[in-house]
Amino acid sequence: MGVVIRSAQVSDAHGIASVIRGGFEKTLINTTIYGGHNIEKYIQYQISNYNSKCDTVFTIADDNSKVVGAVEMRRLVDGLFLNYISVLQCLQSAGIGKRLLKYAIDSILEPNYLYIGLDVLVDNEAAKSWYRKLGFEQENKTTWYEVTLGNCSKHQPALVNSYAQALVSYNSFGFGSFNITTPSASYIIGMLGPTWFRLTDPSALNDSSVVSSLQKLDPRRRLLVLCQEDLALQLPGARTLAQTERMSADIQVVLSRLSQ
Questions:
Q1: Mapping DSSP to helix (H, G, I), strand (E, B) and coil, where does residue 143 land?
Q2: Each residue of 189-232: pLDDT tens digit?
Q3: Is the pLDDT of residue 79 over 80?
């Protein structure tokens, strides 16, 4: 019968998690939700809520009831975002990725969807070459930094919102998020596994009350900062973990080239 491309079912969750995890560099897996201790349960919840038009949709490549490829696609207001696409290494030259991506787009395409975006590691030349052939072009780059929280014990912690809910999510899936609010701003803080606090607004590092709050919540965690600025120049202790490239394309161009 060969490999069948189809929409994911709840029973595919473990296979999806395994295939997508396999597509990560081992040093980076714990900086994503797929490093969570129960990501399979989260995938099951996402799939079981398809009827409510949830934002995340999974498509799989099925080879005799085994998941050998998977796509996680996210709906946006006027387009789509390719969160993850992965195929087992032994099958990567069989055209499965192309079939997966086309099915994933076709299955949820709406008239108002104009573009599709994605992030790819800068040093993943094979993937970038494939995306360029499909019509994707670079928009910007984001650097992932590991930052030491330092000692801010003398500073007054800020207001922490929704931390209890974040812990419920973390205990269930291995990740969660909460807010830290100061007189000047509010920041979304992610929790990834037992290792990381995650933030995408580097200006929070200039607010000692934010750092103090994170230290008091969990002094064992490190801080993962994603930003487009050269943070290393501002913080000598920042260590670069990875760099990603944001790419986007006209969705009709991508579909046309996937059909060739």
A1: strand
A2: 999 999 999 999 888 888 888 888 998 899 889 999 998 866 66
A3: yes
Those residues with Cβ within 8 angstroms of residue 159's Cβ, 6 or more apart along the chain or in another chain: 180, 181, 182
Residue 238: HSE in the Cβ half-sphere, 13 Å Cα cutoff: 19
Which ranges constitute the DSSP H helices of 157-234?
163-173, 208-217, 231-234
If residue 252 lies in a helix (H) or strand (E), which one and from where to where? helix 251-258
Query: Which two structure tokens, joined as six digits, stand for 120?
Result: 């790819």
C-alpha 181/C-alpha 105 separation (Å) is 38
Nearest to 145 by CA among 230, 213, 82, 79: 230
The per-residue pLDDT for range 149-162, each reduced to its tens digit, is: 765 555 677 899 99
Which residues, listed in sequence order, are joined to residue 6 by a DSSP beta bridge? 60
Using DSSP's 3-state secondary structure scheme, residue 104 falls into helix
Residue type for position 154: K
d(CA 256, CA 260): 7
**pTM more than 0.70:** yes
